[in-house]
Amino acid sequence: MEEKKIKRVLEIIPAFFSWLVIITFVVSFAFWPRGAVILLMVYLIYWTLRLFYMSILLVIAHLRMRRKRDWDWEKIIRSLKSSLQWDEVMHAVLYPVYREPASLIVESLQALAGVNYPKNKIMVILAGEERERGVEEKLGRIKNKFKDIFFDIIITIHPKDLEGEIPAKGANSTYAAKKLVEYLREKKIALEKVVVSCFDADTRPHQNYFANLTYHFLTYPKRYQASFQPIPVYSNNIYKVPALARIIEMGSTFWQLVESMRYEKFVTFSSHAISLKTLVEVDFWPVDLISDDSLIFWKCFLKFRGDYRTLALDVPVYMDIAAGKNLWETLKIQYLQKRRWAQGVENFVFLGINFWKDKELPLSLKISKLYQLLDNNVNWATWAIVISIISPFIITAGNLTMKDSLVLFNLSYINNIISHALVFVIVLSILISWEFLPLRPLHLSRLIYISFILQWLLIPLVSALLGSLPALDAQTRLMLGRNVSFYYTPKGRYKEGKREKVDLTL
Amino acid sequence: MKNKEDNSFLAFRRFLFWIFVASFFIFTPVIVLHSLGYKFDKKHKIFVKTGAVFIKTTPAKTVIYWKGERLKNLSPCILRDILPGEYKLRIEKKNFYPYSLILKIKPSEVKTVEVTLLPKIKGFDKADVECNVYKFFYTRHFFREKILLFTSCGLYTLSPDFCSIHHIGRWSLGAAVLSSIVGLRENNQTIIFWSHNAAWRITKTTKSRSEILPELIYKTNEKINDIFFALEGRYIIVWDGLNIIALDSRFPQAKFNLYQLKSVNAMVFYSSGSDTLYIKDKISSNHYSLFETKLSRLIYGREKN
Asked: DSSP labels for A325-384?
């Protein structure tokens, strides 16, 4: 009973603070406009400094990745001296799929087949859901196409409506991983030599992905107390989607790059890798929560008493930007996807409950981790709303009601200076995002690059609409106890409103 | 190797982090206090609250004189850290008439000055008065000639060549009163001005003053045609309709009729030099004649009576 109460309190806290930030500005402007202006000034200065700090980390992360991405990692691992040899390591690539078109999965496997790594060290698990009609046949056809390339391709079909599970990716992944364990035991392959990469159906690893992953797995002293996180780059279909979707996904890449520099706070996200031994020890991904990708990290963190970290890989993985047939559908899909990502706020509740139960972990560690999660989530839900909506509102309304006030006059002046200073951040974003652009399809004019530059002017609108608003939505639903089902982001390539046909031959 | 690299990067990040934290805690209070108008007065070693002025002109790029000193910046511009008080602002641009005004700056407030300069009309000089001018009178007192301006900001005296201007003071007279003023007389001590049915007096003083309080000395339902100083300013003679009335300068409420005119077409003139009152008045139905008398005889004769 007490646990229920604590859980309920923890569910309320993030939204409470997020709304407190927003309401404080609005209410203080109504009753004490000068105070609101001063508060806004402090907030703008704080965020400007924070953005500059993050920009520095972004540049360092980007340069590091650029420097190391194209090294001959296969050569490096061949010459490594380690307790475990590189060729003893097996890679299991897990693709939980649900309603993705076969063409998309084939493209992902084609990319997998093109990596600089012996394919006989890679096994593929295609994890389908029973609730998808025709999935067995679909996955069977795909397996036939690639069966002679990899060590093996295993198909698992996750039964629907299992007790204690919600229909989510984590449940499917866990079922598939358990089947993998059975398979490996049959084949007498030691679990501690297997690294599982849990990908999305559209994930295409960089050609050096496995070599780099093997390198980090072999060289990190506590390899079974670490997850391995590549930088997700959403560029597979970047030339085919609206600008709004491009910049919000690029923002996600930037965020991951920044977080990779803060390794003590780095948490797994989306496609990631983990030792199978560790996965078994922590009982796999959660089957009853939505944000399986980050929760697996926290499960491991708790299991190993805080002595667990996420290592940033030096190579990216390439994924699709979620898009629909048209702009409106794309906006809707993006909003729902970002809301699902923001449902990671449940990590705060998960961690809080477990910290409450665990009397041995140091209090300082508990506070710092809970604060980390709370800070991330509250900032995510508020920063763009305050800067893009509340700030212009206060300046405009203030010019009508307190036009002669020096502090308001100076706020407009400071806002102007900050906007000019942030041009530097936008230029930086353009330069770094340029690095991630794949080759332009020949049928597209070079003029498209103008849109890739001008798109960054949409930042104020996009960051509020597809950044903070979905996060606030997710937190508020959690606060109100409204359960939200797992949103399967539809993946597919569209051209002129029709799904594209892809050549399935190899 | 990995740990070494991690540790050195962690140290660098921590250093960077604390630099930003320190920047936040140092710069934020400074920026906020400065935005509120606070400025450290090095001389008195205290914080004072200042104001600001935002000057916007049409056309732009005008020369600005603040407290008589030319500023480096052209308009539009912002003047910050101004201590509360009154300041003279002058805006100039070639081929435009200059514009001057007195600004009152309050603490923590920004005064916005939006000025449209008047293009110069070739051959014409403009008086350097920015207030609304209702009336002007060209006066000659002994050998001194000057122009008295009745404006919305108060009374000004102007030299005939427009070179020098002096603001005597502000007043609270409204537009209706100022527009109705029809005459003015001046002597060493006093200025009297009148509309058709009221007359006011301002006593001259060598001290500068911010506000003038014109004294209402006469009111009538008839029509004031003229007013004269008489007997070295001891009396004020008012030609009001058909009456010639004398007011004691010291006690204007004490007034008495000197003469009753017979016609509204009468004319009255007083020569202070010879103390002679000239009156053109009707003597029969269509016949007018001119009369003269010594005013002192009229007044003192009256007093005797």
From this structure: SSHHHHHHHHHHHHHHHHGGGHHHHHHHHHHHH-SSS-HHHHHHHHHHHHHHHHHHHHHH
Residues of chain B in contact with residue A221, where contact means CB-CB under 8 angstroms, are 2
Q: Cβ contact (<8 Å) for A404 and B110? A: yes
Fold topology of A73-323: Spore Coat Polysaccharide Biosynthesis Protein SpsA; Chain A (3.90.550)
Instruction: Please report, in tens digits, the pLDDT of each residue of chain B (305 residues total).
Output: 456 667 788 888 889 999 999 999 999 999 998 888 888 878 888 888 899 999 999 999 999 999 989 999 899 998 988 988 899 999 999 989 988 888 899 888 889 999 999 898 888 888 888 888 999 999 887 778 889 999 988 889 899 988 888 888 888 888 999 999 999 998 888 899 999 999 999 887 656 567 778 889 999 998 999 999 988 888 899 999 899 999 988 888 888 888 899 988 899 999 888 888 899 998 888 899 999 988 888 777 765 55
Burial of B220 (0-12, 13-18, 19+ CB in 10 A): middle
- Give the domain ranges of chain B: 2-35, 46-116, 220-305
Residues in chain B with CB shorter than 8 Å from the CB of A45 are 24, 27-28, 31
**Is A371 near chain B, with CB under 8 Å?**
no
Backbone φ/ψ region at A189: left (φ over 0), alpha (ψ -120 to 50), beta: beta
Interchain contact A402–B (C-beta under 8 A): no
- Residues from chain B contacting residue A40 (CB–CB below 8 Å): none
The answer to whether A42 contacts B28, with C-beta atoms less than 8 Å apart, is yes
ipTM of the predicted structure? Answer: 0.83
Provide CATH code, domain B46-116.
Answer: 2.60.40.1120
Nearby residues of B173 by Cβ (< 8 Å), 6 or more positions away: B214
Q: Does residue A45 sit at the B interface (CB-CB below 8 Å)?
A: yes
CB atoms near residue B269 (< 10 Å): 14
Say which residue the tokens 């400025």 belong to.
Answer: B39
Q: How far is CA B58 from CA A255, A353, B30, B62, in A?
A: 47, 66, 34, 9
